[in-house]
Design brief:
- The complex is a heterodimer of chains A (438) and B (79).
- Chain A has 438 residues and is α/β, with parallel strands linked by helices.
- Chain A folds into three domains: 2-170, NAD(P)-binding Rossmann-like Domain (Rossmann fold); 171-318 and 356-371 and 399-437, Dihydrodipicolinate Reductase, domain 2; 321-348.
- Chain A is built from 14 helices and 15 strands.
- In chain A, the strands form two sheets. In chain A, strands 14-13-12-11-7-10-9-8-15 form a nine-stranded mixed beta sheet, with helices on one face. Chain A has a six-stranded parallel beta sheet with strand order 3-2-1-4-5-6, with helices on both faces.
- Chain A is globular and about 85 Å long.
- Mean pLDDT of chain A is 89; it is low at 1-8, 19-25 and 345-350.
- Chain B has a domain at 53-79.
- Chain B is built from three helices and no strands.
- Chain B is elongated, with a radius of gyration of 18 Å.
- The interface between A and B is medium-sized, with 8 and 16 residues.
């Protein structure tokens, strides 16, 4: 049964999910994947959503290049207050109108939806103003710089009746959806712990043409515009932990420092945190950007097995024993040689059992997490397509914003715990009706 | 170069010994399946290991027979 399950191609997998064809039993477990039914898809097949794109830097251009080949997307306007980026984006969509002020773009009645890929400090007010202007919104993760701003975004979304997507692409990554299905079906038993980490070895800097542009270009490194590793990397992985456990942590503590890149930056380059869930399970989180050996992963540990979604592998605790004949030979070998006193108590080498695990699915792409812009086949294209479909139909993706909200707030609470050097409890005023607060 | 002649009796003897080795390896495989409670499909999936063990047993019989021949030869020489 399992091997049959794991031998699905990516396309087959989405067929099974009902994203390409009919419905499936998995849909109830992943409601955001059914934001567009098969009937809706048939109705909108010849439609295109008219998009205004705000923030055309590296991540923005990554989205624009994807949208260029998306048959239901039409980027009709571009906005950036940094001319070189706007010029680069115009090369991708030459017919799109150009704006320097996003408010002028929002006044454009021709635009149905906006996509926001600006620095973090711009997310909240741009998203709120866009929703209030009657636009459907896709905003890059993380949601905002404070829990209150995240909540304001969430409340505005709920009141507006418009579509809001946050760039949590793992929610659409086939590997992750498959892993969550396995976990929720009890394949690895009871989850006892989660170890998440993201390691890179680069300074996170972009080239700056002149010194006065330092804070504009390298906004990720300064507290006025960024919360550093917690909002740029951790939010993705914190969401995976909540997704697996179907709950949010109660408390968090941790430490953060600038250990290696002492180049005038203000955000940590080295963080280590512990998130504790109400059932006692801990999710440890670590991010270092001066060593890339271990890359990125979320190791989800159950009493029956372990999954590593980034690598796309799972491992059972009890591995199939060696063939009987091999066990017999091994035992004879030990009986004969173990008592020979030669170079110590025994010179017979112990052969360690190496559990290489099984693939979650065929034809998948694993990433080392080194790119600051985006990786191919990580669910981003599926997320963009789902947003376009939702913007055309006007039907929001169920629970997607809620998942993103909690991961954003948890990242910020982690930062607070590190900065105040204490254990932070999830504040009741930031709990929304989702997961264990339904 | 001189032709090496192996008598039909010798060939038969060697075949019997090799067949005995195959049976011994097979029994060893059956016992290990029972003792270690592994799958009966190992009777054929572990055929390569059985063949290797058969060859090992056969090599042991050769070594044993050479040893016997040496002991016998030495005792004759002493007399």
């Amino acid at each position: 049964m399992l091997s049959e399950d794991t031998n699905l191609s990516r396309r087959d997998f989405f067929k099974e999910l009902g994203m390409v064809g009919g419905g499936g039993m998995m849909l109830s477990a992943f409601p955001w994947l059914q934001s567009c039914s098969a009937d809706d898809k048939a109705k909108i097949v010849k439609e295109k959503v008219r998009i205004g794109f705000i923030g055309t830097g590296s991540r923005g251009q990554f989205h624009l290049n994807n949208l260029k080949s998306n048959p239901i997307a039409d980027v009709v306007a571009l906005c950036d207050n940094y001319p070189p980026h706007l010029k680069d984006a115009s090369a991708i969509f030459p017919k799109a109108k150009r704006y320097v002020d996003y408010r002028r773009l929002l006044e454009d009645k021709d635009i149905q939806a906006v996509m926001i890929a600006t620095p973090l400090n711009e997310h909240a007010h741009m998203t709120i103003e866009s929703l209030q202007a009657g636009k459907h919104v896709f905003c890059e993760k993380s949601m905002a710089m404070t829990p209150q701003d995240c909540l304001n975004m969430y409340n505005t979304f709920k009141q507006s009746g418009k579509v809001l997507f946050i760039g949590q692409q793992r929610l659409y990554d086939p590997k992750y959806v498959r892993v969550m299905k396995m976990i929720h079906n009890g394949l690895i038993g009871t989850i006892c712990g989660i170890r998440a980490y993201w390691f890179r070895n680069n300074d996170w800097r972009r080239p700056v043409p002149s010194p006065e542009l330092e804070r504009k270009i390298n906004w990720r490194l300064y507290k006025a515009t960024s919360c550093g590793l917690m909002t740029e990397l951790a939010t993705h992985q914190l969401q995976v932990g909540n997704w697996a456990l179907k709950m949010i942590p109660e408390t968090v503590t941790g430490m953060g420092d600038i250990v290696f890149w002492k180049d005038g930056r203000e955000v940590y380059d080295n963080v280590s945190l512990i998130y504790r869930y109400s059932n006692g399970v801990k999710m440890t989180y670590e991010s270092i950007i001066s060593n890339k050996f271990y890359g990125l992963e979320e190791e989800i540990l159950g009493n029956k097995g372990t999954v590593e979604p980034e690598k796309g592998r799972y491992y059972f605790e009890d591995v199939k024993p060696a063939p009987g004949i091999m066990q017999l030979i091994n035992q004879i070998e030990h009986k004969v040689f173990d008592n020979v006193s030669f170079a110590g108590p025994s010179w017979v080498p112990e052969t360690a059992s190496i559990n290489k695990g099984e693939m979650i699915m065929d034809h998948m792409t694993a990433h080392d997490g080194a790119s600051s812009v985006g990786a191919s086949d990580d669910g981003t294209v599926e997320l963009e397509t789902a947003f376009c479909e939702a913007a055309i139909t006007g039907k929001p993706a169920k629970n997607l914003v809620e998942e993103a909200y909690y991961s954003s707030v948890l990242g910020l609470l982690g930062l607070q715990a590190m900065e105040e050097n204490r254990i932070v409890t999830f504040p009741a005023e930031y709990k929304i009706p989702y997961l264990n607060f339904a | 170069m001189k032709d090496i002649l192996i008598s039909s009796k010798r060939q038969k003897t060697e075949l019997y010994i090799f067949a005995g080795c195959i049976i011994a390896a097979f029994i060893m495989n059956v016992i290990s399946i029972i003792v270690y409670k592994t799958e009966w499909s190992e009777l054929w999936t572990q055929a390569l290991w059985m063949l290797i063990i058969t060859c090992g047993f056969y090599a042991l019989t050769i070594a044993f027979r050479i040893l016997l021949w040496l002991i016998r030869h030495l005792s004759i020489y002493k007399k």
